[in-house]
Design a protein that fits this description.
about 150 residues; transmembrane; cell inner membrane
């Protein structure tokens, strides 16, 4: 049991750090216009936060998908997007508030971030499931796979 918890923590953390380091880094460099050193600093700070939130998000996503039980690819896409949106947006609001954003800055930042989470929900869900399988784990509502198969 402890071994599975450790593998779950490692898989969820690795998946989140890799996916959002790449996506956020590209966004910060090419959309926000940050320099590569600024991106490196931002992603270093982001990595710490991702380590703290990766496994809680994994629990949230598993619970959410097990509760909603999407039965079609479209429903799965929608539920994965809602799961990411509903978990990450409140975290993002706290981060930008703590960083000094106020009023319309919070509103516009949150709207943009929410749109991004809706778009990235399913791609990230697929990536997370892929990484979990590499660690011998399986998706929501399924028994863990053996490491050999």
């Amino acid at each position: 049991m402890a071994n599975q918890r450790l593998r779950s923590f490692a898989a969820d953390t690795l998946a989140l750090v890799i996916f959002f380091t790449v996506v956020s880094g590209l966004n910060e460099r090419f959309i926000a216009g940050m320099s590569w050193p600024e991106v490196a600093t931002s992603r270093s700070i982001g990595a710490v936060l991702m380590v703290l939130t990766a496994r809680p998000y994994g629990y949230w996503r598993d619970w959410f998908l097990n509760t909603t039980k999407p039965s079609t690819p479209t429903a799965t896409l929608l539920m994965d997007s809602i799961a990411l949106l509903s978990f990450q947006v409140p975290v993002y609001v706290l981060i930008i508030f703590a960083s000094g954003a106020r009023g319309m800055g919070i509103v516009t930042g949150t709207i943009g971030f929410a749109a991004l989470m809706l778009v990235l929900g399913r791609p990230y869900g697929l990536w997370l499931d892929f990484v979990r399988r590499r660690f011998g784990l399986s998706g929501p509502g399924q028994k863990p796979m053996s490491l050999g198969g």
